[in-house]
Amino acid sequence: MNKLSQTVALLSLMAALASCGKVVGAFVPPQTVTNPAGLEGKTLTSDSALQPAAVKGSVSYSTRGETFADIAYPKDVPFDIRPHALEFQAGFSEATLAGTCLLTAPATAAVTLKSLKVEVSDASGKAMFSAAPGTVFTLTRQGATGTYAVSDTVASVKAGAADTDAFIRVLTQGGPNQASVTAEITADKDSLAGCTISFKVKNPKVILSDFS
């Protein structure tokens, strides 16, 4: 076989393998990663009091220097198959108010998640994606002052192929990782203005799909 024939054969083999990866990847079902970055039970907290005008504010959580290890792919995954779509889901089990609004805080309130941003980083760089889910959580006051139960609503944001690929690179290469979640919220009760609010995360998960 001459050099040209060898080159053509090699290119054909590479194309066939790439095609195999797409075909095999199409049969890989979505994979769920539970409790990513140890988010279960962590709190997203506002760094300042909620403001009037539709009672708005932001809440956030960060690993704050507490790193977590890279994800190790199984060595026997064929054709270097990787996911190219990512969905982050989470709910809240409890909300806590603190501040000047406690004496007039309502028995119930509806809080809308106007935006949600998820970011991961390591020594080599960072990746993030955000969306405006518009998810509404109903808060119902419990016995303890300032403590509210939260409805079983689930917020969901999705990343496209480019953002998913960037996330996978950060989480599988470059060493220890950090993560943060930030949300912009509004509430339907003006009486919440003047308080800070914290949400305890429940059932966080990442769903990986579109393997190829």
UniProtKB/TrEMBL annotation:
The residue range of the signal peptide is 1-21
Per UniProt, which keywords does this protein have?
Answer: Signal
PROSITE patterns in the record: PROKAR_LIPOPROTEIN (PS51257)
Superkingdom of this protein's organism: Bacteria
Protein name from the UniProt record: Uncharacterized protein
Q: Tell me the organism's taxonomic lineage.
A: Bacteria, Thermotogati, Deinococcota, Deinococci, Deinococcales
